[in-house]
Amino acid sequence: MRCTSAAPDPPSQHDRWSEEETRGDSDAFGAKRRIRGTIDQERRRRGHHQINKADRSSYFKQKPVLRTGTTRLYMNMELQKVFSLGHSHLGALSSAYENVEPHSGLTFELTRYQFLRVDRPHIVHVENRGWCYNQEIERDILDLLENTKPAAVAILLQGEQAVSSGLIAPVRPYDFFFPQEVGYIPDPNSEIIPFDIIFNICKNKFRLIADFLDLIVDRLPPIAFALCPPPIVGDTKFILNSDTSHEGISSHIAKFGLPSTSWRLRVWKVHVMALRAVYTDRKIAFIDPPAESFGEDGCLRTEFRSDVFHANAAYGQLLLNQINRLVEQQLR
Question: How many domains in the chain?
Fold first, then answer.
C-alpha cells in the first residue's frame, strides 16, 4: 500500500480549503510516520530488503543519459534512487538538482524524465484509445522503472490547468461552495453551480494523467507520490505585463479583464482537489506545495516565481527538500 496522506496546508490567515478537503494533517509528516509500518510490510512483501546502489541519472533532449561513476555517500549510507517524471513543472526541480552542492545533505540521487521534447509531441491521438501520452513515453517510463528500480518515484504531471483556468474570466459569471465552506459570500450576479459538477469537470481535465497512472501504477515502488503544482502568482501587474498567449489567454484578458486574485485562488484550489483525487484514487500520495512557498495572500511568494505558470529553481530546491524528508522518513 502506498502512502495516501497529504502534507498539511501551509499556515495562512487567508481562506484555504478545509482540512477535510485536503486530507491534511497537523503534523507535517505525522500521517506518513503512522503508515510507515504498512509501507515496511509492503516492501517486505515485494522483496525490497536491500538498499540499491545509487547511480545518478538524467534526461537530456533526445534520450536518457545515465551517469555512472563514484557514488557519493551520506552518513556512511549509499544514496537512494529517486525517479522523477513530468512536463513543464519538472523544470524547477531539474534546475535545482543540476546546481546541487556536493555536500548538500541530500540522501538521494535523482533520475529525471522530461515528457516535453522538441522532436516529438508528448500527447497524441491513438486509434481505439483517443488522446493519450505518446506511446514512446509510456515505453520509456516502464523501461526506466524496471531498469533503475528506484526506491521512490516523484510525479510532476500537468498543473497548468489550475492556473490557466483561473486566468480566463467566465463569460457567464458563476460560483460554487466548497464542501463544508462557511461564511463565503459569492457575487450576487453569479450563478451558483453545485460543487460536484465543478469538481468532476476539473477532474476530467486530468484524464490523461489518470489513464497514464493506470498503466504504470503496478510498476511503482511502495513509496510513490505526486508533488502538487505551485501556488498561483498573485501579482496582477506581473501577470498583465507577462506573455500569457498560451491558449489565447492574453486576448481573453484583453477582452474580459483579469479575474480577481480571490477567484483565481478558488479555481486553483478546486483543480488541486481534483488532481489530488486522481492520485489518491490510485493510492498515490499527493504532497502539497512547501509551506514556505506561500505568501500572506495565499499565493506563490515573489522569490519563487519564474513566470505566470511556473516556479523557479529556488522553488525546486524546496521540492528537493520535500523529497529528501519523505525518502529519509520512509526508508529509515
Answer: 1
